[in-house]
Amino acid sequence: MSGGNALGADHLGACEVLLGAGWEPEWLVGASIGAVTAAILAGSKPSDRLDRLKSFWKLAEQADVAPMFTIPEPFRARYNNEHALAALIFGRPGLFGRRLPGELSLLPGMPSDRSIMDHRPMARTLDALIDFDRLNHGDTRVSFVTIDLEAGEEVWFDNRETRFTSEHLLACTALAPLFPPVEIEGRLLCDAGLANNLPFDRVFRDTPTANQLCIAVDLFSASHVRPDSLDQTVAHVQDLAVAMQARRSANGVSRARDLLRKHDPDSPSSILAHLAYRPPGTQRALKALDFSARSLGERTQQEAEDMGRMLQRNREAPRDQPFCYLGAE
């Protein structure tokens, strides 16, 4: 599961369909808000998983005072951006808030600072929602990726090797310069979104011993309609900068699996089901900070519909190829 801040409500829709259909993940891999989703799922009893995830997004949502009838796209886009600006200025209770000096550190004579906002309130929220004993000792393997801000290297944490705390999740979601980096074991860590926002490559890194199915839930898409405003152009460029990572990773996995099949004709098959969230035109440049109730609900519903279609495509996918890529339609 990928990062994307408020776009992470998309994960809830995916989980509702998968868990509702009886699917049980053997391994959850996440970056940023995807790591938070994974931790809530693996750190809850099966009967509580969806309720805990819904509680997180209920806490995150902003009151939506607009009438429920359709709003013309330009006005709705402005309405969504205003919610995002409000979150950036005032924060979200239980997730993040103002930090001092924050951006004021740019002014002459002010003390230095590393970020604009403080996301430590989220640690208290996650401590209340997640059973860390279950997360660390349960049957589901969980892996998170961060970036060492000094060395420029990926740093992975796995519950088979590390005892997770809320500090690890703060490190995963420390999107610089919005949130401050987190020091763990002497390394200054931040959000991996700019380098590996959808880290499914971790699943395919080792030589497979059995057939694999990896369902990758991406909060950004490389495909868009032609932009006709500056706001849309900025949104598309943001998406491209992140979404192209996944395309390159998928191409690399495909080449590796083809080479493995040539070397070992009996090697297992792998399927990558890649769902990329394509937001409506009303979600623009600030969509990752738009926590309005209506936007969160739309994301959840859209991903549930997309996941239902993807499961049907997976049932029809060939099982004899070294690597089968099921991309977003």
3D structure, described in words:
The protein is an alpha/beta fold and 329 residues long. The protein is 41% helix and 15% strand. The protein is built from ten helices and ten strands. Strands 1, 4, 5, 6 and 7 form a five-stranded mixed sheet that branches. α9 links the parallel β8 (212-218) and β9. α1 (9-20) packs across α10 (293-316), α2 (33-42) packs antiparallel against α3 (49-60) and α5 (121-129) packs across α7 (166-172). The protein is globular and about 65 Å long.
Low-confidence stretches: none
Strand content: 5-15%
Mean pLDDT: 94
Q: Give the termini distance in whole angstroms.
A: 18 Å
From the alpha-carbon coordinates, what is the Rg to the nearest angstrom?
20 Å
The topology string of helices and strands comes to HEHHHEEHHEEHEEHEHEHE
> Can you count the helices?
10
Secondary-structure map:
Blueprint: H1 9-20, E1 27-31, H2 33-42, H3 49-60, H4 73-90, E2 97-98, E3 117-118, H5 121-129, H6 132-137, E4 141-148, E5 153-158, H7 166-172, E6 182-184, E7 187-191, H8 193-196, E8 212-218, H9 230-263, E9 270-276, H10 293-316, E10 323-326
Parallel strand pairs: 1-4, 8-9, 9-10
Antiparallel strand pairs: 2-3, 4-5, 4-7, 6-7
Describe the structure concisely.
With 329 residues, the protein is α/β, with parallel strands linked by helices.
